[in-house]
C-alpha cells in the first residue's frame, strides 16, 4: 500500500512540473542546447558514475550490461524529478532563475535468467534562453536591439538489453531514439519591428554497447570494471518559419508563413568511456568513470564558435553498513553518498572552452523491505566563466528519485 501511495504522490508532483519543464541558461543557445545530466537510482549522489555500477535493484542507464544481473521475477520502475536554483552572471550583471523538471521515467524486467530489458523516456537536451544583443547600424553610431529567445529541447526514448555471459561477465546494447524541437524567436527593434519565429525539429537513432566484468576477489575485495562505446550518428533536421514586421505606422505585414526549410544534419560524435567500482571493505565502495566524446571529428561550425573534444571525469563514494546488531535502526539502513564530476565541455567560445563541475551528496533511504528506495541528492555546480566577456552559472540542484522494486510473475504457493 505504501508503494501505491508514493507512486500516486510522485505522479501528481510530476504532472504539476510538466508545465514548468525547461532551463534558463544562455549556453543552451548553441547547438541542440545543454545536455540533460540525468542519472537513475542513486547515481546522481555518486557524481553521475555508473559504467561499472553493478546493482541488481536499480536501473543503470549508463551501461546496459548491468541488466544482465537482474533477479528473476523482479520488476523495477522509477521516476525522477529535480529542481534547480541558478545565478547567472557576467562582469557587471547577474540574474537568478528557478527551474523544475521531470528527469526521467524508466522500467526494467528480466526476460529469463541472465537476460534483462529496460525502456525509458527522459530529456536529452534542454533549451531556454533570452538574450539581448546591441548592434550598430551600418554607417552610423546608432544601435538597434536584437532579442533572441529559445525554448524546447530533444527527448530520448531508449530500449536496452543486457545478457549475463557467466558469473562475472555481462554484455549490453542500448538503442536510443532522439526527437524533439527547438523554438527560436528573433525580434529586431529598429525603425520597424521584425519578428522571425523558427521551429527546428530534429530526430535520429543512436546506438550504444556496454560491458561489465567482475574481477576475481582479492583479499575479499570485489572490483568491477565497465566500458561503453557510443557510435557516431546524424540527426536530420527540418524547419518551419513564420515572420512578420510592424512598420513605423503600426501596420503589421506578413513576410513568410509556414515556410518549410531543410536544416543541416547535426552530428553526434563517437564516444567511449570506462569505469571501475571497488569495494574497499564491507562498508565503503568507490567508483571512478572517464568518458571522451570526439566532437572535433564532426567538423561542425557554430558561427564563430567551434566544437572540441570533450572529457568527463567522475568520482563517487558510498558508505553503507547494515550491522546485524542494529538492523532495526532506520539510520543504519541508509546509504550515504558523495560525488564529484568535472566536464571539459565541447564548446569553445572566444578561445575559451566552456567547462563545468559539480559536487554532490546523497542519501538512499529504504522505504520497504523489498529493496524499494527513495533517493535524494544535492549538487552544487558551476559552468562557464566570467572571463573574456563570457557568462558564469552557479547552481544548486535537488534531485528526488523513487526506485520501486516489484515481484512479478511469481507462482502462488498452496499448502
TrEMBL record:
Protein name: Long-subunit fatty acid transport protein
Keyword field: Signal
Signal peptide: 1-19
